[in-house]
Structures are given as structure tokens and as C-alpha cells.
Amino acid sequence: MLPLLKLADRFAPAGMTDPLRVQRQRAAVVQSWIGVMFTALFGGLYFVMGSPWSGAAILLITAGLLVTPPALRRGYSRIQIGNGLIAMTWLATFVVAVRSGGFSSPSLVWSFLLPLCTYSACNQQSAVAWSVLSGLQVAGFYVADVAGVHFAQDFSPSLLSILRISGYLGVILAVVAVLLVVESARLAAAEGLSRSNRALERERLLADMHDGIGSQLLGLVVQARIGTLEQPRLLLELETCIDDLRLIVGSRDAEESSLEQCLADLRARMVPRCEALGMELDWTVTVAQSPAWTPEVVLQLLRCAQEMLTNAVRHGRAQKLELLLFDCEDGTDHVELAVQDNGCGLPPDGPPHIGRGLSSLRARARRLGGRFQLVGTAPGARASLRFPRPTCAPL
Fold it and tell me: If DSSP codes are grouped into helix, strand and coil, which group holds residue 278?
């Protein structure tokens, strides 16, 4: 098997990078060489044993298999090539069965191998189609046998026994070879997916650190150099950077932790800060859980909650804050995250410009497919993020 796999790599199409496509192409090449060995052997045996029609039909498959690797190398469709070869095999099975006893022919055992080969090298639709056609072929010979139709018999009983045994052994070996190739493709696809997920996770972490913590620290450096950074503000900004870093690291465990657990971690960090400023923090989370709360969704949600709470603490001058996360009951299947306070509220001319916080909240709302809103509530203000409930992507 290993020499065949090395040989298959020589026929891998140049420029192909998708791991699953590469492995399917590799499987098709390996199967073609396995098929060449088996069909050439059986074609020669049928010729020697006195059935030239059967031998010619089988050797026709050998010819098709020989041109398969170069055709794949040149970029021809693997699915079209595979279906063409299966059609030739199906026809050869029919010819051999007609010349060797019909329903009692040992060649019909190959009908059960066609769907498996088609699935491993082509796709599910092709496998289903050839399963039906193979079943019709076997059923047709059975009906003909029941009806008393007599087929030619090019072989003696002893030769038929040899062919039957060799056919069974050949099918077993071919099934094992196909399963090995399929398993190799499955493992390679899983590894490729794992590498892709790790790369996406690294990109996400780098982007969050660059856009969040990096920008905040750069702003602190600039203010420190020009002498406009006071110690209370420095401490507050550093605490915000630490919170951002905790969110980034904590979001990686979102697949193992529930959304409530992630929010509980945020609450545990915010409560001491609010108490130190004489504020009361209420926390109400009633949203229904779903497997679709991916690490990316959770991170965006936690960042929004942290930003809204931080803005209320900094600018609201309130005695009480309240965070709510709940399912909207208006029939839209939306979720709302809100932070409201009883502080000074908003100025008459509209929401103030709070650094880059509001623009960041609006951008994150867009990523979630929703919208952010900040309104006065007399007293206080309410910041809310409304977005569609995340749903699992279709398989």
C-alpha cells in the first residue's frame, strides 16, 4: 500500500490545496492502480480459461484505469472519470455473467463492490446511483434464472469453482484496500480541519489583541508621553486591558463552558469594581442556551457587556447598574443584551462621544447581525444590543 501512496503523490494535481480534495484525488489514484493489478490478472485468467469475450471486457477496464492517473493530473473531473470507470466495470460484469452462467456467475460478486468504490472516489450521489444499478443487474439475472433463461457457459465446473474462490478473495482484498484509502482520507481531512481551526483561532486572538489591548496600550503610551495621563485614569485603563485579556483567553474555553459561566466570570470581575465606587450591580440572565453560542459569538457578547458596563461606571455617576440578557418575546427570535443605570443620563443634544467605545459597540453589533442603541431613561441611560439568536450552521 505504501508504494502505491507514494506513486499517487506523483499524480497529485499541481496547485490543489484543499486537504479533502487532495485526499480524494489520492484515493482515486491508489484505487486505479489497485484496479489495474486485479483487472489485468483476471482478464488474463479469463482469456486463458477459454472466455475471450470476458477477458476482453475486463481488459477494457484495465485500459481505462491506466489512463486515469494522467487524466487526474491534467485536471479532469474525478467524479466524471470515476463514474465512467464504474460504468465500464458494470458493463464488464454483465458481459462476464452472460458468458459464465448468468445468476450463478462468480462475477456478480463484484456488483457489491461498485458502490463502495464509487463513494470513496466520487461522491454520495454517484454511490447511490450505482447501488441502484448494481442491484438492478443482480435482480435482472435472478429473474432471468427463475424464468429459465439459459446463458452461455465458457468454463468447466472446476474452473468456475476456482474463479468463484478467487473472486471472493479478490473482493475481500479490494474492500480492505478501499477502506484503508478511505480511512487515510478521513484522517487527513480531520487533520486539515484541525490545522485550519488552529489557524483561525490564532488569527482571531491576534486581531483581538491588536484591535483591543494593542490600541488601548498605544493610547496610554501617547498620553503618558505628552503628560496628560493622570494616575486614576491610568489605573482604570490598565484594568480595562486586563479585562480584555481575560476575555480573549477565557473565550477559548467557551466550547466547554456555558454562556452563563462566561458571564459569571465577567460579573465576578465587575462586582468588586462597582462596590469600590459605591454602586450596586444587579445581574439577570434568562437567555436559553444553544450549541450555536460559539467562542466568536461569546467573545463579541462579552466585549459588548464589558464595554457597556465600563461606560456606565465611568460616565453614568449612578448608584445602581443592571445587566440583562434575555430572549425577546416579540416573535422575532432575537436576543437582547442591555445595561441600564439610574445616573445622570444623556445630555439634551444626544449621546456623548465616549472615545471609541460607542463605535466599537456598533461594529460588534453588526458582526452579530444586530444593532446597538443608547437612549436616556430619566433617570439614567440604557445601552442595548439586539441581535438574532445564533443558529447552528447546516452540515
Answer: coil
Q: Which of 322, 318, 310 is nearest to 238 (CA)?
A: 310
Domain ranges of the chain: 2-193, 258-388
CATH class of 258-388: alpha beta
Residues 43 and 59 sit within 8 Å (Cβ to Cβ): yes
Query: Which candidate, 72, 93, 70, places its Cα nearest to that of 82?
Result: 72
d(CA 85, CA 64): 7
Of the candidates 374, 380, 337, which has an alpha carbon nearest to the alpha carbon of residue 353?
374
DSSP state, 90? Answer: H
Tell me if 54 sits within 8 A of 96, measured CB to CB: yes
280-285 sheet: strands from edge to edge: 280-285, 320-327, 334-341, 381-388, 371-376
Rounded to two decimals, the pTM is 0.47
State residue 3's pLDDT score: 44
Query: Which DSSP string corresponds to 123-171?
Result: -HHHHHHHHHHHHHHHHHHHHHHHTT----B-S-HHHHHHHHHHHHHHH
The crossing angle, in degrees rounded to 10, of helices 157-208 and 19-48 is: 170
Give the pLDDT confidence of 298-342 residue by residue, as tens digits. 878 888 888 888 888 877 788 899 999 998 887 788 999 999 998
Locate 368 and state its grid cell.
452579530
Q: What is the radius of gyration, based on Cα positions, of the chain?
A: 34
3-class state of residue 258 by DSSP: coil
Gap between the Cα atoms of 160 and 153, Å rounded: 9
Which amino acid is located at 244 in the chain? Answer: D
Q: Which three cell numbers stand for residue 106?
A: 462468480
